[in-house]
Protein 1
Amino acid sequence: MNSGADPVDVVPQGADGYMGGDLQKVMSLKVRPLDFRDRKKYETTISAPSHSKDLELWKLKKKADSYSPPGIMKTMDNFSYLNETNWRHAIQEDSPVLPADLMGSIRNQLREMREDFERKSVLVFDRANLPRNLTLLGKAIFRVVPENFLPEYRSPCFNLHEEDRSSLACLPNVFLAGFPKCATTDLFKKLIRHPDVVPTSKEPHWWTRTRFTRESVLHYLKHQTNLVRQMRDTGNRRLITLDASASTLWDNTYSLGKFGSIHQPPRWTHADVLRAVLPESRFLLLLREPTERLYSGYMAFDLEWHGVKSPQDFHHRLVQSLQDFSRCMKKYPLETCANFKFNMRLRVGMYSVFIRDWLKRYPREQIHILRTEDWAKDPAKELSRIFSFLEIDPLSQDALFNITSSSRENQRKQEDRSLGKLLPASQQLLDEFYKPFKEDLAQLLQDKKYLWTQSM
């Protein structure tokens, strides 16, 4: 699966913003699905096609659909966030100006979120004080994974008891948790070249997109088999591994359906479960200038756009997504709209909304944040800092040079580069839209470089 990509839609574009809660309450709002221009394509692709190329695409869609919670697709197919006839189209493609009331609402709500975060004491859950709903959600995890781990291992390891046998099992204690199209693949590939970091599959997306059954827990543990094997073969119990699922920090779709409603963001998320299971985990976050990130993501995920990509198509989809987001903000809080999926993944660039949420669960010293631009400028320096953060042995300058001088991973394809840059109108819309989120992030992290001004 693509880095941090959403499960591939099999519903009409625009009707994919899942809002959890009772379906009768949803339908009582007298809303109806919007008919977007690709609905006919959707209707012809939900059954298995005969052409071999289309069949492979259909299989990928069906596989991606399996990541979604039961019933979510049915709900999304019957429900759209707002009735199209209730709101005028406030954003025109040929006049890239965002509604003043939308931007004012975003700024006001971000300020309220900041004040609320600064005012309230952080409540984190451990095994002793988990709310009942969270206990039920993570019941299989808490039954399989003990509260205390074996002290002789750096990684969170324990003895797994299955029927008549016992074996060593481990979980990752490092999460390269976000964000997609911010060079997470490149960082992952270079991190695993450290002798103390054992490579595993990069993106299981387990915490965000898998229901916590016993079978799925055991399957996730198998992702760390390389770690267990290498510790056994080498006798080195200080080895670590990492989960580099770039969806971990921001994808709350399942939590919204489980603990949220159409009017409120989720009360709890998978972050609460992860905090209760692995309170000592460390997190690495890569942040890229959000406008660039969105355009790069559009170019990268071919399946989502059915192979039709251009700056003009990007602009059309952008305007459509901004219209939908504006409609959402007319009815629901920002924290709720930030957890809905629109035609384009605008929400991923709302970094401060998600980072603040995780800072309620984990202390700042367990979260290392860097900009993609700084990583690209001096990867050796940034990699050295990451090794220090992870408390693993530093490498020599020669070793760092050998690792970081290799070509960058998962770069934009040449055929995508040849399509050209953003249209000026797209750039103007996105710069205006993301500006309050950048300002909020800079205040949250107390660092003006997250404004991404030209001089920084």
Protein 2
Amino acid sequence: MDLKCDPGLGSACSQKDECSEPKSVCHNGTCICGTGYYDINGVKVIGGTCTSKVGLGSSCSQADACSDTNALCSNSECTCRSGFYDDNGSSDQGGICQQNSEFHYV
């Protein structure tokens, strides 16, 4: 009997549908979580599970858990990076990180 093990997250792969973890894809020869998901074990560890990224104001446990590309996980909460603000206000969940604008007067 010939058994084949499908690669998990962080493992080498060669085809897009070869990775065993649901919601994962083969990207540049490695199984990674697809768009909108992150590996709860971290990207440098083989194995893990893809879980949905979370929005601003939501609790998080690692840097890539936040869905907004201009957000980071700080004090266990997704917040906007320096130079950005939450367009939904700082007390509500949700919103989008917008770039701060500087006004120049002539």
Protein 3
Amino acid sequence: MIVPRSSSSASIASRLAMKYLMPSQLLAPFIKNSNRCYQSRCSIIRLFFHRVNINSDSSFVVSRQPQSLRTVVSTTTTVNINISALHNCRASTTTSTTTTKQYFNNDTISSIPLRSVLYVPASNTRALDKVTKLLSLATERAKRPDAIMYDLEDGVHPTKKEEARIQLYEYLQQQSSTAAAATTTTLSRNYFGLLRINRSDTPWFHDDASLALTMVLDTTINIHGVVLPKIEGWEDVDFVARHFRSLMTESAGKGADSTTATSTLSSVSDDDDESGSGDVVSPVPLWAMIETPRAILSAAEIARQASIQGLILGTNDLSKELRLRPTTTTTTTSSSSTTLSPTPRMGMLTSLQYTILAARAHDKIVIDGVYNNIASDADNLEHFRQECLQGKEWGMDGKTLIHPNQIQATNEIYAPSHEELEYARRVVKCWEDAIAEQSSSGRNFTGVAVLDGMMIEELHVIMARKLLEQAEKIHSM
């Protein structure tokens, strides 16, 4: 694509780039002066495996990163880009901006809290403005979500899909520049960003996938994974994973010689097929929406895919597909007390618990579905808390939300309580004291301790320490 030198507006340039450039071209442009115009070329980038340095004189270096990047979260990929060339497509003298973001694989994703996952429609300007306010450091941490899912699917009208992609890309670029500016500390980027794209059988899938790949690979944009709606089997995951692989290969073919492409893709060869059933590992982390009966019955094989980082329940679609009757939560008032009716999800109980089993069997994250009533009256808020408690007791890692007024209660409930932490500390101390006591008396430790009459084994200590670690991570956010 040729962009005229007079295209000085970053907004116009980014819109053109979004429409015409491949993802890796956005990530790694080479700038070539030709008749007062500047032409982009591209080089394939493999997530987690390469360091790319692009200098102001258009020279670049791509160096191989160690395999340990697959599993070591403390090591991050750094990309140095001539931001002026990328946004304005011109060779003005501008200092390159360097930013980093942390990537998480299936082993390290559990190291971050994902208590609250807020849906944000990408086409809704007002909702995006609310996100900016939520991320303000002036907002209490308890009222900020752990994760944000920017939505290009159900939350966007079919006629607004392209506009939503452009608007979201510009918004996240602005969010990044605001957070990275040396003179401001008013905006937090301390959240886990997800992008929900449209199904692979829709006309919007290809453009959504191209945008998603760009955003995940771009270290300046806070998107860490891609959410796939209405996944119904491992074949669906495999198709999308192969599509992302082909996007990267296609990018290499358009702008880089075959030697570069072959060398780069050697790190994602057939030995990445770790879990069988035709599983091809996606170059970007994938999250599967479980929202149909077929998906429930296939939840275990979906969770087994190496490309999948987590399962997210879509309880509204699931309720429709199960043909459950619409239910409302009522209260029964007596002269002395108010009794809440059970959370109206009994018809989905088997489906929800089976999804949790599937996720835990393959050590994946599982996020509960939404609560539809956003009224702020006391009764409704109590019903919402009851549903959060229900999900926590069943073993969910967090909950998807549709309104900011649901964030604080969710964060509170899915965080370890004061009582839970106190008991966890007592379990660990009891265990350590038992080991020390038996060691000092010259006896071998029996592997059992007793606290308040209850038997304590190593598994209880592991659970207690995990709870304490979770609290520490939340506190440090």
